[in-house]
Description:
Elements: H1 7-16, H2 19-39, H3 46-51, E1 55-61, E2 68-78, E3 81-86, H4 96-103, E4 106-111, E5 114-122, H5 125-138, H6 141-148, E6 155-161
Antiparallel strand pairs: 1-2, 1-4, 2-3, 3-6, 4-5, 5-6
Amino acid sequence: MAARRPWWQRLVQRIAYSRPGIWFFSRTLHYIDRPLLRLSRGRVCVASALAGIPVITLTTTGARSGAQRSLPVLGLPDGERFVVIASSWGRQRHPAWYYNLRAHPQATVSTKGRSGAYTARMAEGEERDMHWRRALEVYPGFRVYERTASNRRIGVFVLEPGG
């Protein structure tokens, strides 16, 4: 999958998972992508345009606050389902949405102008391994994040329609 991408998308991906790229993109990308996705009704974002990464807007319920939180994340289509990877750019802690989905598995996924209710569950065992391999094909940077987040196992969630 990654081999069929244009050279410039592969270059952008390499930059994104380099140390300076992680520093820059982890601090800026969501500030750009949130309004861009909202204005384009989920059709356009920086990560998809520049790096060829499939992005969805994931809306979760705060684990402690109960407030709705929406953010763009890599969302691997899997038939009617989506798979999301809680890498948090390789940080030592899981992203906030990981804890939100663990506490409240009901979520909303918006992509390409459509939204729907989904229920999240952690993928385990062979299923997790299969989704992890697919994720690495789409974005090899997850391998780097796995090394830098060595104190934790990066969560792989399957979002199934309904909720």
